[in-house]
Amino acid sequence: MIRRLLMIVLLLPAVVLAQASVVLLLGDSLSAGYGLDREDGWVWLLDQRLRQAGLPHQVVNASVSGDTTAGGLTRLTSLLERHRPAVTVIELGANDGLRGLDVQLIRDNLSALILQARAVDSRILLVGVRLPPNYGAAYTNEFQGVFQTVGETEGVALVPDLLQNVAEHWDLMQPDGIHPTDEAQGRILENVWPALEPLVRATSGSGS
């Protein structure tokens, strides 16, 4: 019995390290890799980038095509309990905007997602998107401002536009005009990496 207890105690640091080395991605089809092979998506490329950088983190991609901020709220609690992520990337809101949902509701849901992740001491990256111009200037501008407002109010790192330098190039978009092609995934990673890298390095153990 004593030997068994000693083994458990010795294993505890390894368990904590494993938990602290998870990057959880809570997103929609833009991160789930809609229309792409798994190895072509930007989240897969992120996993490779972490390995190349010598960072110990494991990427858990919990993105679901069609998900909304409300849907994310129903899933996040169990994901946090299961993975105890060191870093949580919140990439939701696009489907809310495409449905024309109230901007205040989107703002409230994003804030609630951040509070949930913060409750388990996870560092947070909020990732925004832009809507197509056919939704009207008033709504699209208000929608885009949600991410900046929430990022500043909650004091979290922010990527203002996941598809910067992608969505405006039709050759980098799938025929639906909403989802990027495999050729665009590297650009998407470069949009995310500058904001994500400091969070990951700060939770790598050495912080270097």
Going across the biggest sheet, name each strand in turn: 2-1-3-4-5
User: Quick one: how many beta strands?
Assistant: 5
First-to-last CA distance: 40 Å
Amount of helix: 40-55%
Give the percentage of residues in beta strands.
5-15%
Can you put this structure into words, describing what you see?
- The protein is of the alpha/beta class and 208 residues long.
- Helices cover 51% and strands 11% of the residues.
- Helix 3 (42-52) crosses helix 8 (185-202) and helix 4 runs parallel beside helix 6 (103-118).
- The protein is globular.
- The N and C termini lie far apart (40 Å).
- Residues 5-20 have low confidence and may be disordered.
Topology at a glance:
Blueprint: H1 2-20, E1 22-27, H2 29-32, H3 42-52, E2 58-61, H4 69-83, E3 87-91, H5 94-98, H6 103-118, E4 123-127, H7 137-154, E5 157-159, H8 185-202
Parallel strand pairs: 1-2, 1-3, 3-4, 4-5
Helix pairs in contact: 3-8, 4-6, 6-7
